[in-house]
């Protein structure tokens, strides 16, 4: 494991501890008590237990930092310039269906900019992490975005709106424009891992609408530190507050963004 700062080490330790809890619950997924949290969006005891572990670890280590997380909402810290942005289980629907594609996502924001990120795919034991200015890694391996330069050789990831969401027409139009130009589009159901996979060169790019800050925070810094580009869908917008993003390697980015923004 590459040596990072004290903050990055705290994040990795917290992610691994919460990951052990989730893997244990994932093995018993059929016994989980699942409660409805709105149309097509489930939350489980496993999710809440993981968030509690993360909060305990991160806030104990840095009690002055703020906190923003999926289940527990937002808390202001004594240090107004720093906050943890956490998704204890990105890919909940996959998790509850027994699909081994979900992750813990932890971002550290400083003065409005994400400066460190950890995405832990505990089912596959792949931990992606980055810190501003120090590069991006998976386990011990340095990450670089893909070197592909042609759209027709590239694959892209996105999310597809599920039951009752209003952005289906936009997404179908995106797909109609992008699919004829590329080698394929994947929808694996965990935005944090989609971004980690762009950083790892497994996808050339990713775009999605209607995400939350905790889906995106860690992925943004990991993609940037792997040499990728990140931008809001609206060129004048803000990725974290808008919840919309386009990420890709540099050779593909302009053409890809033009098609999506068209």
For this entry, give a set of tags.
262 residues; alpha+beta; Fructose-1,6-Bisphosphatase, Chain A, domain 1; D-Maltodextrin-Binding Protein, domain 2; 2 domains; 8-stranded mixed beta sheet; 26% strand
Q: Can you walk me through this structure?
A:
With 262 residues, the protein is of the alpha+beta class. The protein folds into 2 domains: 6-142, Fructose-1,6-Bisphosphatase, subunit A, domain 1 (Fructose-1,6-Bisphosphatase, Chain A, domain 1); 151-261, 3-Layer(aba) Sandwich (D-Maltodextrin-Binding Protein, domain 2). It contains 8 helices and 15 strands. It has helices at residues 6-27, 45-61, 92-96, 168-178, 191-199, 213-225, 239-242, 250-261, and strands at 34-36, 42-44, 66-69, 73-75, 82-90, 103-110, 113-121, 126-131, 136-138, 141-142, 155-158, 184-186, 205-208, 229-231, 245-248. Strands 4-3-5-6-7-8-9-10 form an 8-stranded mixed β-sheet, with helices on both faces. A 5-stranded mixed β-sheet has the order 12-11-13-15-14, sandwiched between helices. It has a two-stranded antiparallel ribbon with strand order 1-2. Strand 11, helix 4 (168-178) and strand 12 form a beta-alpha-beta unit. Helix 1 (6-27) runs antiparallel to helix 2 and helix 5 runs parallel beside helix 6. The longest helix has 22 residues, at 6-27. The protein starts with 5 loop residues before the first helix and ends with a helix.
């Amino acid at each position: 494991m590459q040596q990072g700062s004290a903050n990055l080490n705290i994040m990795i330790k917290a992610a691994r501890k919460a990951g052990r809890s989730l893997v244990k619950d994932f093995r018993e997924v059929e016994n989980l008590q699942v409660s409805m949290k709105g149309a097509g969006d489930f939350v489980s005891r496993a999710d809440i237990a993981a968030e509690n572990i993360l909060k305990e670890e991160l806030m104990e280590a840095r009690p002055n930092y703020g906190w923003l997380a999926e289940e527990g909402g937002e808390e202001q810290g004594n240090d107004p310039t720093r906050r943890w942005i956490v998704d204890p289980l990105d890919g909940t629907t996959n998790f509850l269906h027994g699909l081994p594609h979900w992750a813990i996502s932890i971002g550290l924001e400083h003065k409005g900019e994400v400066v460190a990120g950890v995405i832990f795919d505990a089912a596959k034991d792949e931990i992606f992490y980055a810190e501003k200015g120090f590069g991006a890694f998976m386990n011990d391996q340095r990450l670089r975005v893909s070197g592909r330069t042609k759209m027709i050789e590239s694959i892209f990831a996105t999310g597809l709106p599920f039951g009752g969401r209003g952005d289906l027409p936009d997404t179908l139009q995106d797909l109609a424009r992008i699919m004829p130009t590329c080698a394929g589009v994947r929808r694996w159901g965990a935005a944090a891992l989609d971004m980690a996979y762009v950083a790892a060169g497994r996808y050339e790019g990713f775009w999605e609408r209607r995400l939350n800050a905790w889906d995106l925070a860690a992925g943004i810094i990991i993609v940037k530190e792997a040499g990728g580009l990140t931008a809001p869908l609206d060129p004048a917008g803000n990725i974290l507050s808008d919840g919309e993003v386009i990420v890709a390697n540099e050779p593909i980015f302009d053409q890809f963004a033009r098609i999506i923004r068209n």
